[in-house]
């Protein structure tokens, strides 16, 4: 019995080590992404909602100082924006001109922060506490990892797929599949790295919104 247990344990540890080795390109790319001084990138977000026949597709833009601050805008004309100034997260509905100020650990802010690699919970090691690796693939300088949620995260998410460019050290694509069948895909175009960002890009014009 003890021998059988040791065999099973060795097999499990072998799988864990194999996945750890496979994740080296992702870990290296995320470490290099954190070294970027600035990032400016166009993006496209697609939502596939089971109750709707057509996809919801919106263009947007992201300005970011990795690990420190970002401005996220979605829709043309602008529909939604989010700003993290290093201490608080601000979510703005640009149609209704309403806004909310959140702590970084608020559940409404966490998915966006995690996707952009901001905060302790966004580190690869912390991410692997909430997700298990179900597969990896590498095509040229594109590295793809499929993740399955664990614990409480499993209540809301079915799966997550990340694709990162190991050359530019930046995300190319992230796909969330929710429990209700909704799929959210965010695609990032080739980024402009280490160039000056617009002045005041992380400032919040509080007077322009009605705050919750």
Commentary on this structure:
The chain is built from 4 helices and 13 strands. With 212 residues, the chain is an alpha+beta fold. It has one domain (25-211): outer membrane lipoprotein receptor (LolB), chain A (Clam). Strands 1, 2, 3, 4, 5, 6, 7, 8, 9, 10, 11, 12 and 13 form a 13-stranded mixed sheet that branches. The longest helix has 21 residues, at 2-22. This is Outer membrane lipoprotein carrier protein LolA.
Descriptive terms for the model:
alpha+beta
CATH class: Mainly Beta
Structural class: alpha+beta
- Estimated helix fraction: 10-25%
Unreliable residue runs: 1-18
Number of helices: 4
DSSP strand tally:
13
Can you describe this structure in just a few lines?
The chain is of the alpha+beta class and 212 residues long. The protein is built from four helices and 13 strands.
Question: What's the helix and strand layout?
Answer:
Elements: H1 2-22, H2 24-33, E1 39-48, E2 56-65, E3 69-74, E4 80-84, E5 89-93, E6 98-102, H3 110-115, H4 124-130, E7 131-139, E8 142-149, E9 157-165, E10 170-178, E11 183-188, E12 192-193, E13 210-211
Parallel strand pairs: 6-13
Antiparallel strand pairs: 1-2, 1-11, 1-12, 2-3, 3-4, 4-5, 5-6, 7-8, 8-9, 9-10, 10-11
């Amino acid at each position: 019995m003890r021998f059988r247990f040791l065999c099973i344990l060795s097999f499990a540890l072998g799988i864990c080590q194999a996945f750890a080795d496979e994740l080296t390109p992702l870990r290296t790319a995320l470490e290099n992404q954190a070294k970027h001084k600035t990032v400016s990138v166009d993006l496209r977000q697609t939502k596939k909602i089971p109750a709707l026949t057509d996809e919801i597709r919106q263009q947007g833009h992201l300005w970011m100082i990795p690990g420190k601050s970002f401005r996220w805008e979605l829709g043309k004309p602008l529909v939604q924006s989010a700003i993290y100034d290093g201490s608080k997260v601000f979510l703005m509905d640009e149609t209704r001109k309403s806004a909310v100020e959140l702590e970084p650990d608020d559940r409404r802010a966490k998915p966006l922060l995690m996707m952009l690699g901001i905060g302790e919970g966004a580190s690869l090691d912390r991410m692997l506490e909430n997700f298990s690796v179900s597969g990896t693939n590498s095509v040229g300088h594109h590295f793809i990892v499929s993740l399955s949620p664990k614990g409480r995260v499993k209540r809301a998410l079915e799966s997550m797929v990340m694709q990162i460019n190991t050359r530019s050290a930046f995300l190319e694509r992230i796909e969330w599949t929710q429990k209700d069948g909704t799929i959210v895909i965010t695609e990032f175009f080739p980024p402009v790295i280490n160039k000056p960002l617009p002045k005041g890009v992380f400032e919040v014009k509080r007077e322009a919104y009605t705050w919750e």
